[in-house]
Amino acid sequence: MPRYAPVYSSVVLVLLLVVLGLSSTLSAQAPRTKAPPTVVFMTDFGTVDDSVAICRGVMYSITPDLRIVDLTHQVTPFSILGGTRFLYGATPYYPAGTVFVVVVDPGVGSARKAVVVKSKRGQYFGLMTLVEDRDGIEGVHEITNPTFMIGSKLSSTFHGRDIFSPVGAHLARGDNWTQVGPEMPVKDLVRLDLQPSKLDERGISGEIIATDGPFGNLVTNISGDEFYKLGYEHGQDVRVIIGKTEMTVPFVRTFSDVALNKPLLYIDSRGRLGLAVNQGSFAETYKIRPPQPIFIPRKEK
Q1: The CATH classification of domain 5-188, taken from the options 3.10.20.740, 3.10.180.10, 3.40.50.300, 3.40.50.10790
Q2: Which of 51, 142, 183, 239 has the fewest Cβ atoms surrounding its Cβ within 10 A?
Q3: In which element (H, E) is residue 267 found?
Q4: pLDDT digit string (tens) for 20-49?
């Protein structure tokens, strides 16, 4: 099985060096002001205690003019997959120079390694499976340099404060990422065991991998492009089997295309197949919790 970073690493340090395209009209206008150093911060800490505020304070103490954007602190506890999924969806929308610090750390204090991974797009990560599949890897460095850390350096329960936040702040202010520690072979890192959807002559088999925030929509690992190969068009009913639950659901463009409290199948904003209830929760209505297998047969001719 291929090996990669997510099981070892609980921090994502992303420096976007790829400039997002701007129109020639914009470039002809007044010169752009340089953006302040920016960290996008995501954890599974929640907001009921002081953990997030402490990490923010650490980053500000290193880079006082830092701008911190909170992506979310409600990642499902211990879910590296959840953090990786949100990271994959968010990174394309931030400008060059942004650093992503993500702390989802079920192995805190153990022998797992914290790393910074540079993608072939010039971005720096710790959770890599989905991003690696999209962008490829250029290099990896383990975080061991104490000058990039604070406090006791190796606290057994709060590496978000002592290691990950300060490294993110150092990178945001422009410190050399290769100085965080020794280079590591890519083959030494551990990869999330993600199974892709499978299309065959019967239909497509995939997995319900998450729910969509507070709304209870189901998120699948089936891309819209793969689903369309089954032959369905908007407005048609689709037979869907989730675990042991079988139902027929209309395939539509958006939620209001069905009546209130009725189910629907749609392509979500990230290009994946999803299931929802118009102004309701699909997960609650049908008592479905991820992960669950999903199968959709080809359209009958």
Answers
A1: 3.40.50.10790
A2: 183
A3: strand 263-267
A4: 333 333 344 555 567 788 999 999 999 999
